[in-house]
């Protein structure tokens, strides 16, 4: 919440594009953390038979935000100021800062901070994040900033793929406390759901980019 709020304020007060990027990066870190920890809390505290309802509620929030967000943001950018796109987040952040300490009651696991830090897969986390970023960056700018066969696109893409393969091997053979328990992929039903989720993400992202390109060329 703190990262998301601070990032929104920095972006709203920015006077140049560099500061906007810095604010959005900080806000993105906070937003990614909010998404991940929300799902972690649900899976940790909600019984399996009720989990679908809670995850459905979260998905509803995503659906409403995905549809209304671009419309509201575009309206502010055109009719008022683009800064309101970031200021609009602050009332919701304020609600979160009040509601979280009032309603989130988590019993801490009785162990020292040092013991907890030892349970983190630091190398696996670094390898996974760096490899994923190395794949996503060239996929994002491929065909836009550089051609798909340009070395600036191919080199990080290949390194990222190799890194992800190395991550899987590390998690299987070397990691003591694994970042991702790969045995969940050994279940056929779970694996099919994961594949479907990946395909869903690819299709949605492709559609969004397709319509964005149509808007840019004036159709």
Brief sketch in words of this structure:
The protein is mainly alpha-helical.
Main beta sheet, described? none
Strand content: under 5%
Mean pLDDT over the full residue set = 85
Distance between the termini: 39 Å
Given the C-alpha coordinates, what overall shape results?
A: globular
By DSSP, the count of extended strands is 0
**Fraction in helix:** over 70%
Q: Treating each run of at least 4 consecutive H or I residues as one helix, how many helices?
A: 9
The H-and-E topology, N to C, reads as: HHHHHHHHH
Ranges with pLDDT <50 over ≥5 residues? Answer: none
- C-alpha Rg (nearest Å): 20 Å
Structural class: mainly alpha
List the helices and strands and how they pair.
Blueprint: H1 2-13, H2 17-45, H3 48-79, H4 84-87, H5 89-103, H6 113-118, H7 122-141, H8 151-173, H9 188-216
Key terms:
single chain, mainly alpha, 219 residues, globular
Describe it.
The chain has 219 residues and is mainly alpha-helical. It has a domain at 1-107. The protein contains nine helices and no strands.
